[in-house]
Amino acid sequence: MRREIRRFLRIWMQTLLPPAITMSLYFVIFGNLIGSRIGDMDGFDYMQFIVPGLIMMSVITNSYGNVVSSFYGTKFQRNIEELLVSPIPPSVILLGYVAGGMCRGLMVGMIVTCLSLFFTDLTVHNPLVMVSVVLLTSVLFSLGGFINAVYANSFDDISIIPTFVLTPLTYLGGVFYSIQLLPEFWQQVSHLNPILYMVNTFRYGILGVSDVNVPMAFAIIVGFVAALYSYAYYLLRVGKGIRQ
Amino acid sequence: MTKALSISGLRKTYGNGFEALKGIDLEVEQGDFFALLGPNGAGKSTTLGIVSSLVNKSAGQVRIFGHDIETDAVNAKKSLGVVPQEFNFNQFEKVGDIVRTQGGYYGLPAKLVRERTDYYLRALGLWDKRDVASRMLSGGMKRRLMIARALIHEPKLLILDEPTAGVDIELRRSMWDFLQQINRQGTTIILTTHYLEEAESLCRNIAIIDRGQIMANKSKRDLLAELQRETFVLDLEGSFSFVPSIDGYPVELEGDHTLIVEVERGQGLNGLFEQLSAQNIRVASLRNKSNRLEELFVRLVEKNLG
């Protein structure tokens, strides 16, 4: 875990600075310029409404991105062998990478939260929900990044899922809008998107409003975490992609 | 006494159907300096990969100091240090960090890790480079870094896969001295190398593997005793346009003043020199055509091909 933290802090210009700049642009363009014309959403001004979603988007992309690039880099440079010859059990290796992804995801989340305070006031409606959902989401996407890296055979392979799956699901996961605005059919389709549950549960923790049932959202997120952890552990134990 | 390494019935078939190991048995005694030799693709790296948990075996059993690599993996791995053939450290990390991090993987206390890192970096001539990114090191330094990393937990068995490949002669000699020193201190060493001179100088016991099978496994002395014939090169004083006739010794003239002579085991060289003297042929110098182990190795592998 220490090695993982050292890695992303060493290259902070690539890991911490870009999301801070991107999110500041979102706040200025969507929140201030366009948001002032949109008006209220779910009883909050548009800037307040999108802040929880943008924080969650940062946590998701950075947790995922940290583990996928770090583990693939470790495979690519073959220094995964340092871990394989050592007596560290697969579960601890996995937890180390997940903890590294969580640290970066949560650190970027904190940076984005601090930046958002320059644009709007934030009050926390339910701290327990807010903290627990952001932690679980960070674990979930760290695990996702790990599985992606196990299967990746080239640097292209580690950008396919973030570009073609993660980004669309995040944008369609209620970051910028309430799904109440959608026609009934698309509302039902949106409920198939797991990121919708994370964004809305986090928004509930901060603003107290949500498009989804919060206990059910927790059950879904915990279910995904359990499934992805089991699968990632299995892949590591059999040495998929790392042992011949 | 428990063997440092015990391999029985080890098989490996890769996904493409290639059978790299065909059921090998091998034992290495504690404290030994052991060489595993073989041509490219013979199965050396596969064998060592399985022992190091980097390659999954298809069948068989491997024990390191009595610990099965599957059922008692933690103790087996704690007893083992590995120096692979290819550089396999993070090129962006600093030399000191690479060694220290590896110590952490073995659960060593931070103070001990610092002490050992300092000791091995100094012993291997890397102390001045401790804060340099590993990619900035020369090839020889990178090899020494991998040795320092493998020794951080002071394993009882150290495996080195081609440790001196691409290393200059002076540095190779200093690495030999270092390896002999840690072997004298009790570390069992298993080495693969293409420099047969290296194996002949360092190792007490030797196994030769070819096409996934062990062709020979005995002490260096017994192995060399199997050598039935040696080839000598004699540099002659003066030039010759004809091949001298020498009874009992097949000879060839190479150039105009070099004689290649094959000598059967037990035949001795006295008869050769007597005949050369009788013909007024003076010998300026004498040497083996190749080193003895190399000659034996080539014959064994050729026999297997035949």
Instruction: Average the pLDDT over all residues of chain B and give the rounded result.
Output: 87
User: For the terminal residues of chain A, how far apart are their CA atoms?
Assistant: 26 Å
For the termini of chain B, the CA-CA separation is 39 Å
CATH class of the largest domain in chain B: Alpha Beta
Strand line-up across the major sheet of chain A:
1-2
Q: Which stretches of chain A are low in confidence, meaning pLDDT under 50 for 5 or more residues running? A: none
User: Helix share of residues of chain A?
Assistant: over 70%
- Proper CATH architecture of the largest domain in chain B: 3-Layer(aba) Sandwich
Number of domains of chain A: 1
Percent of residues in beta strands of chain A:
under 5%
Helix content of chain B: 25-40%
Classification by helices and strands of chain B: alpha/beta
What's the structural domain tally of chain B? 2
Element string of chain B (H = helix, E = strand) = EEEHEEHEHHHEHEHEEHEEEHEH
Tell me the number of strands of chain A: 2
Explain how this protein is built.
The complex is a heterodimer of chains A (244) and B (306). With 244 residues, chain A is mostly helical. Chain A has helices at 2-10, 12-15, 17-38, 46-76, 80-85, 90-116, 127-151, 157-171, 184-190, 194-207, 214-238; strands spanning 40-41, 44-45. Chain A has one domain. Chain A has 11 helices and 2 strands; from the N terminus they run H-H-H-E-E-H-H-H-H-H-H-H-H. Chain A has a two-stranded antiparallel ribbon with strand order 1-2. In chain A, helix 3 packs across helix 6 (90-116) and helix 6 (90-116) packs across helix 7 (127-151). Chain B folds into 2 domains: 5-224, Rossmann fold; 228-305, Alpha-L RNA-binding motif (Alpha-Beta Plaits). In chain B, helix 3 packs across helix 4 and helix 3 runs parallel beside helix 5. Chain B starts with a strand and ends with a helix. Chain B is 34% helix and 27% strand. In chain B, strand 7, helix 6 and strand 8 form a beta-alpha-beta unit. At the A-B interface, helix 1 and helix 5 of A face helix 2 and helix 3 of B.
